[in-house]
Amino acid sequence: MTLTLILIRHAKSDWDHPGLEDHDRPLNERGRASAPRIGAWLAARGFLPQAVLCSSARRTRETWEGIASRLPDPPEPVHTRGLYLASPAAILNAMRDTEAASLAVIGHNPGIGSLARSLCATPPDHPKFGVYPTGATLVLRLPARTWADVTPGTGEVAAFAVPRELPDPD
Predict the structure, then answer these.
(1) Residue 78 and residue 95: Cα distance in Å, rounded?
(2) Range of lowest pLDDT (19-33, 42-56, 83-97)
(3) Which ranges constitute the DSSP H helices of 45-110?
(4) pLDDT per position as a tens digit, 62-72
(5) What order do you get walking across the sheet with 77-80 strand by strand?
(6) Three-class secondary structure of residue 68 per DSSP
């Protein structure tokens, strides 16, 4: 069996509110425009998650809302505080009980980018992959029966994109 993992770093967030807790920062204008681009890109390529794990941070929740607006029949996300600034090990642990064969995880750097790098057998040939910028999205095919069976270095890259390189979906 092959599992499909979609690893998404939240879109660009707003830093204009100095008193706001980091967890509560919203997307900025660019981030609100980028998230639907990722959704349209995923939909056009048939990368449709059956389940979504999302950090409880405002910027990740808003990222999913923008992505979901471009997907046919998007699943309800599971928001969890444990994915907020999570390590790669914590992200993998959060994925373990998922039953869906296609899973999207929306999180933060450095954890989401580190997990992406660790799971790839061969990283995508893209100059931005190493820094995993805001909105970066990796689609991996993993040779595993369950999410608990996923091991580093086994993922085959199906696609990688950053929102700045994608056309406006409208």
Answers:
(1) 11
(2) 19-33
(3) 58-68, 88-95
(4) 999 999 999 99
(5) 77-80, 51-55, 102-107, 3-9, 137-142, 156-161
(6) helix
Q: CB-hemisphere CA count at 13 Å for 122? A: 4
Nearest to 53 by CA among 76, 77, 69, 86: 77
Beta strand spans in the chain (E): 3-9, 51-55, 77-80, 102-107, 137-142, 156-161
Instruction: Give SS3 for 80.
Output: strand
Pairing of strands 77-80, 137-142: unpaired
SS3 111: helix
Distance separating alpha carbons of residues 127 and 82, to the nearest angstrom = 30
156-161 vs 137-142, strand pairing mode: antiparallel
